[in-house]
Design a protein that fits this description.
The protein is of the alpha/beta class and 211 residues long. It has one domain: Acetylglutamate kinase-like (Carbamate kinase, 3-Layer(aba) Sandwich), CATH 3.40.1160.10. It has eight helices and ten strands. An eight-stranded mixed sheet has the order 3-4-2-1-5-9-10-8, sandwiched between helices. A two-stranded antiparallel sheet has the order 6-7. The longest helix has 22 residues. The protein is globular and about 50 Å long.
Amino acid sequence: MAAVISLGGSFLFDKKKDTSLLFNELKKINEKFLVITGGGPIARDYINFARDFSLSEKELHTVGIKCTHINAWVMSKAFKADYTDTDPRKIKVNKKITLTGGYLPGWTTDTCAAYAAVSTHSKVIFNMSKEVGVYDKDPRKFDDVKLLKEISFDKLYTLTKGKRVPGMNFIFDPLAAKICKNNNIEVVVTNAVKDIQRYLEGKEINGTIIR
């Protein structure tokens, strides 16, 4: 068993000090971790670059996937962790920290994290975001937002519905949410590294729990 972390590209690039803190803290926790990295701004830039050359939607997804693996590989070297590009539905975690990225066109890294949680028998995915947690409205568009400390997967779906395109940023992917709901996997959305240990110890967290 391993705890799964979906490390958003926005967290990875916008919070470099917190990213270093994250990996250093993971080494102290008595648990194995599988970290799946997002693409972040480098993926969006490359997707737009590729779109200018008329690549297909499937090829644009592949561009994004390759960027997630660049990020995963860099983090594995920076923090002396394992790296794999294995199918998340078959992934095994043998070392303290294992990193990977996306897998198939059409799957977000959240979806990969959900499949990986099933294959590793994890009961939680920590979705590390640049936001504190899940809000009732988009905090980038509204000032009067309310942080939701706990919500259901059904409620989450109403906040994330809509067509996905390569490079789009959502709270947590609807397909990933469906996989988690069907397999009784909770999702912790947070930007606080300490929330990982707090949750594992049964303590109150700063972010949002989706169950």
